[in-house]
UniProtKB/TrEMBL annotation:
Name recorded for this polypeptide: Plant bHLH transcription factor ACT-like domain-containing protein
GO biological process, one term: regulation of primary metabolic process
Main localization (coarse): nucleus
Keywords: Nucleus, Transcription, Transcription regulation
Source organism per UniProt: Abeliophyllum distichum
A cellular component term, taken from the record's GO annotations: nucleus
Domain (Plant bHLH transcription factor ACT-like) ranges: 63-137
PANTHER family: TRANSCRIPTION FACTOR BHLH35-LIKE PROTEIN, TRANSCRIPTION FACTOR SCREAM2-RELATED
Length: 147
């Protein structure tokens, strides 16, 4: 086979693949390419929409869960990253006379924290602890390393 024929066959195969991927009903080469272009453009718009939604979720997620287990409290915090957030939450524990026994923290895409704490003196209402931590994470923060 001549090289010209091989190139033509390769082009036909590629056009067939494009036609299949884009579900194009066109027969003309230019129409198949235009359908592929539109298909890629729609995919780009979908990716941008997903990125906007992801960014919105990262910026607006705020969740505090407190579970009481005897004298211990299991506290889970998920929120947007912020400067001095970890320090502020630990200060809240200290102000409420809670001794932190164990803590796990992540801050890859958002701030996540799980703490096991124990009351130093009298028991604390879980709702008050939840509200205190929510107030700490809702406080405006400066531009720090975690923003």
């Amino acid at each position: 086979m001549s090289s010209k024929m091989q190139r033509r066959m390769a082009l036909r195969r590629k056009l067939h693949i494009l036609k299949t991927l884009t579900n194009s009903k066109s027969v003309k080469k230019s129409s198949i390419i235009m359908d592929a272009f539109l298909y890629i453009y729609k995919l780009k718009l979908q990716v941008e929409a997903i990125q906007r939604e992801y960014q919105y979720l990262i910026n607006h997620i705020q969740e505090v869960k407190v579970e009481k287990d005897g004298t211990r409290y299991v506290v889970r915090v998920t929120c947007k990253k912020g400067q001095d957030l970890l320090e502020s939450i630990f200060e809240a524990f200290e102000e409420m006379n809670l001794n932190v026994l164990e803590a796990r923290v992540t801050c890859k895409h958002f701030f996540g924290m799980e703490v096991i704490a124990e009351a130093k003196g009298q028991d604390i209402d879980s709702r008050i602890l939840t509200e205190t931590i929510l107030n700490m994470i809702q406080r405006p923060s400066g531009n720090g390393a975690f923003n």
